[in-house]
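Whiteboard transcription, Tuesday session. T.W. wrote the structure tokens on the left side:
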């Protein structure tokens, strides 16, 4: 393995560096460049076009928060659509719910999935051994556009940033198609970027503006992801019916006995209590 420093530009002036990284695999697909590294600090991790996607040290935070928040609001969800999520971590967490009947996962780049299965079994373990999971290697934008109306109770947009293959997953037409594909009690969770640096804040505001124009309930919640720019990251919660706090089924979720490393019922409530600067930015979203 080639010893190297892994450095990622969070902004033009701020860079994130892992000093003990060893680069051991690289592949360029028709969609992006995939690189895998090993690090004593973060374990195995991979990047897409030079940006950190998943690492063994903190992946549980992201995957807990994208998965368990909606399930604690509506534990009766039966059908789930995951857009992106090629590392398999979101599917892994959803597969822990025995009540789910269907988990469809749409990833545009099959190589992300296959390489994760090879090098990151920690996140990709459920993709091979759960019959409820069906993989589709195609464009998530087109998949949702062609989906039958009201065919999913939950859509999880586990996407990259709004550049390259992930760009179409931040458009109003995509969110409109998600709304159409959701059942009457459906929930949409989408990757909402960071409120801290201007580069990500701009996309956060744009995404929220589009979603709140479509859904009667549109909220934002936060979590701490150390290896994403600033460490302060957001998901959007949108629904036709359920409010993430008023309809929080704390006792019902806790009765399932799921062991989690980040998510819990207190975090669920606290994650929606946003800092003032974030509230103001979202209030002005238009």
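and on the right, the sequence the group agreed on:
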């Amino acid at each position: 393995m080639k010893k190297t420093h892994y450095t990622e530009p969070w902004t033009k002036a701020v860079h994130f560096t892992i000093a003990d990284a060893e680069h051991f695999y690289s592949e360029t697909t028709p969609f992006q460049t995939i690189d895998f590294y090993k690090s004593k600090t973060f374990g195995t991790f991979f990047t897409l076009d030079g940006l950190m996607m998943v690492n063994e040290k903190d992946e549980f935070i992201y995957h807990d928060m994208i998965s368990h928040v909606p399930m604690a609001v509506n534990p009766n969800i039966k059908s789930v659509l995951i857009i992106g999520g090629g590392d398999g971590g979101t599917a892994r967490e959803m597969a822990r719910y025995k009540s789910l009947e269907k988990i469809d996962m749409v990833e545009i780049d099959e190589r992300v999935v296959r390489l994760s299965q090879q090098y990151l079994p920690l996140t990709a373990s459920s993709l091979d051994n759960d019959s409820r999971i069906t993989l589709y290697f195609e464009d998530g934008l087109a998949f949702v556009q062609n989906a039958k109306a009201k065919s999913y109770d939950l859509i999880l947009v586990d996407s990259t940033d709004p550049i390259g293959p992930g760009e179409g997953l931040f458009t109003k037409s995509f969110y409109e198609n998600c709304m159409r594909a959701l059942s009457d009690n459906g929930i949409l969770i989408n990757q909402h970027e960071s409120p801290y640096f201007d580069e990500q804040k701009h996309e956060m505001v744009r995404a929220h503006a589009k979603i709140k124009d479509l859904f009667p309930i549109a909220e934002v919640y936060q979590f701490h992801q150390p290896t994403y720019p600033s460490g302060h990251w957001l998901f959007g919660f949108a629904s036709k019916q359920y409010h993430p706090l008023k309809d929080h089924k704390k006792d019902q979720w806790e009765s399932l006995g799921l062991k989690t490393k980040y998510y819990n019922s207190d975090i669920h409530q606290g994650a929606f209590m946003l800092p003032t600067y974030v509230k103001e930015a979202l209030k002005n979203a238009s």
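Someone added at the bottom: The domain at 2-54 is CATH 2.30.140.10 (Spermidine Synthase; Chain: A, domain 2).
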